[in-house]
Amino acid sequence: MSCCTLCERPLDVDEDPLSGDCWGCIGLIEATYLKAEESIKFVELEIAWGWREENGAAKPQSVFLADPDLCNTGQRLH
Q1: pLDDT over 60 (residue 56)
Q2: Radius of gyration of the chain (CA)
Q3: Which of 33, 44, 66, 69 has the most CB atoms less than 10 A away?
């Protein structure tokens, strides 16, 4: 299994909507540093869905694995 080189999150875990190409890291980087409007929109939605902390940090993968319905809160965007 491959992992994100920034946060070591296991990648491509079906139950974790933030694990594709480590959107947990990439989305926040794009939104925060590149000010990419689409990424800002996605991160804001993911905060509202409970996928991210209020500061935009990705919730731990264990949260998604413990509550598979959380992934269904929003649609898989990435």
Answers
A1: yes
A2: 11
A3: 44
The model carries a pTM of 0.82
Q: Return the pLDDT at 72.
A: 74
Alpha-carbon span 29 to 24, nearest angstrom: 9
Kindly report the number of other CB atoms within 10 A of residue 61's CB atom: 18
**For residues 42 and 66, what is the distance between their CA atoms, to the nearest angstrom?**
23
Token pair of 35 as six digits: 């000010």
Rounded to an integer, what distance in angstroms lies between the CA atom of residue 19 and that of residue 17? Answer: 6
What does residue 35 show for φ and ψ, rounded to 5 degrees?
A: 55, 35
Report domain extents, the chain. 20-73
